[in-house]
Design a protein that fits this description.
One of its GO terms (biological process) is methylation. Keywords: Methyltransferase, S-adenosyl-L-methionine, Transferase. Helix content is 12%, strand content 32%. The chain is mostly beta strands. It folds into two domains: 7-140, YaeB-like (Elongation Factor Tu (Ef-tu), domain 3, Beta Barrel); 160-231, YaeB-like fold (2-Layer Sandwich). Strands 1-2-7-6-3-8 form a six-stranded antiparallel beta barrel. Strands 9-12-11-10 form a four-stranded mixed β-sheet. The protein has a two-stranded antiparallel ribbon with strand order 4-5. Strand 11 and strand 12 form a beta hairpin.
């Protein structure tokens, strides 16, 4: 079986660290899916505009050369407990395939190109998309389903405090580009990207979002602190 991508996703997630661990947690992050030339036809997506959400089937392209293991250490358990790889959503799988439900914002067909705009995706920029399917609520939503180690998700409710310099920089970026950078930073940091075994208030972290480096820390008793936002040098 040989599968070829039908599209490529474009967004501000330039590295794995910082991407929400599940879809739908950072809804302000907008992504576009560019269908590749063979599939970039209006007929291919006819009727899809009537769907509010879609499934993306994709390749964990950053992990394809990393191999796989029968057991992995899920971040939810702080890396201290092993589980079978098929009992997790680890990207290090026998076949590095991912599945995410996202909100379909719009479809554009112009100049021989088909582009889908979605929100809430948890895919790395430039991820190859293998297939797109409609999300069908009556069959895909299972209210009685459960997973013993992932019963729910509670984002951090801490206030997000920007230094004056970082806030001023973000406001300039938003004015210049129209990017909702402040809202995106707040949503992503409230998802708490920190590894469960690194929860020190003194520790600083960095993520790359779009073309910007964000330095931040979290004091679990006080606030999430955005220490600096700067343009990437490369």
């Amino acid at each position: 079986m040989n599968f070829e991508p039908i599209g490529i996703i474009h967004n501000g997630y330039k590295e794995k660290f910082g991407i929400p661990r599940q879809p739908g947690l950072a809804t302000s992050m907008v992504s576009t899916i560019e269908l590749l030339s063979e599939y970039s036809q209006e007929e291919v997506v006819r009727g899809l505009e009537g769907c509010s959400h879609i499934w993306l089937i994709f390749i964990f392209s950053a992990c394809v050369d990393k191999g796989w293991s029968p057991t992995v250490r899920p971040p939810r358990f702080g890396g201290n407990q092993r589980m079978g790889v098929l009992a997790t959503r680890s990207p290090f799988r026998p076949n590095p395939i991912g599945l995410s439900a996202v909100k379909l914002e719009k479809i554009e067909t112009d100049s021989g190109k088909v582009i889908l705009t979605v929100s809430g995706a948890d895919l790395l920029d430039q991820t190859p998309v293998l297939d797109i399917k409609p999300y069908i609520p009556y069959s895909d939503s299972l209210p009685d389903a459960h997973c013993h180690y992932a019963q729910g998700y509670d984002p951090l409710s801490l206030p997000v405090k920007f230094t004056p310099e970082s806030l001023r920089f973000c406001e300039q970026v938003e004015k210049r580009s129209g990017l909702a950078l402040i809202k995106q930073i707040i949503e992503i940091l409230r998802c708490d990207p920190r590894p469960a075994y690194q929860r020190s208030a003194e520790r600083e972290y960095g993520i790359r979002l779009h073309d910007y480096n964000i330095r931040w820390s979290i004091d679990d008793k006080e606030a999430i602190h955005v220490l600096a936002v700067e343009e990437c040098e490369d």
